[in-house]
Amino acid sequence: MTRVKMWCLTIRIKRNDQFHGKPLHKVLIEFLMDAKISGATVWTGVDGFGKRRRSTIHLEGITINMPLVMEVVDEQSRLEPLLSQIKRMVNDNGLVSLHEVEVF
């Protein structure tokens, strides 16, 4: 089995976060696709909290403003040039982290 060292960029935001009036997670996905990144997934969280307090609001059985986690996997040389633009888009609305992973 071949193992390849790559990098995983993790972005934690909320569903209602926006960038220039558009949903932030959609803007980020488009940005990553345009940059020809290998892959990204947006995960919806059930509950969470951070520096902006709790990430969920429940209204008559409907949950809004849920936490979202984006995982982006590619080579370090392809992700690092994008970090400043991604951090600018996320701003103080979320958390951006980068760590090495082994891909099988």
Keywords, please?
104 residues, alpha+beta, Alpha-Beta Plaits, four-stranded antiparallel sheet, two-stranded antiparallel ribbon, 10 strands, globular
**Considering DSSP H and I runs of 4 or more, what fraction of the residues is helical?**
10-25%
- Describe the global form: globular
User: What is the arithmetic mean of pLDDT?
Assistant: 90
Number of helices: 3
**CATH level-1 class:** Alpha Beta
- Could you give the order of strands across the largest sheet? 4-9-1-10
| DSSP strand count | 10
Radius of gyration: 15 Å
- Which residues form runs of ≥5 with pLDDT under 50? none
How would you describe what is shown here?
The chain has 104 residues and is of the alpha+beta class. It has one domain: Alpha-Beta Plaits (2-Layer Sandwich), CATH 3.30.70.120. Helix content is 22%, strand content 46%. It has three helices and ten strands, in the order E-E-E-H-E-E-E-E-E-E-H-H-E. The chain has helices at residues 24-34, 76-79, 83-90, and strands at residues 4-14, 18-19, 22-23, 39-44, 49-50, 53-54, 57-59, 62-64, 67-74, 95-103. Strands 4-9-1-10 form a four-stranded antiparallel beta sheet. A two-stranded antiparallel sheet has the order 2-3. Strands 5-6 form a two-stranded antiparallel ribbon. A hairpin with a 2-residue loop joins strand 5 and strand 6 (53-54). The radius of gyration is 15 Å and the shape is globular. The protein starts with a strand and ends with a strand. The model has no long low-confidence stretch (mean pLDDT 90).
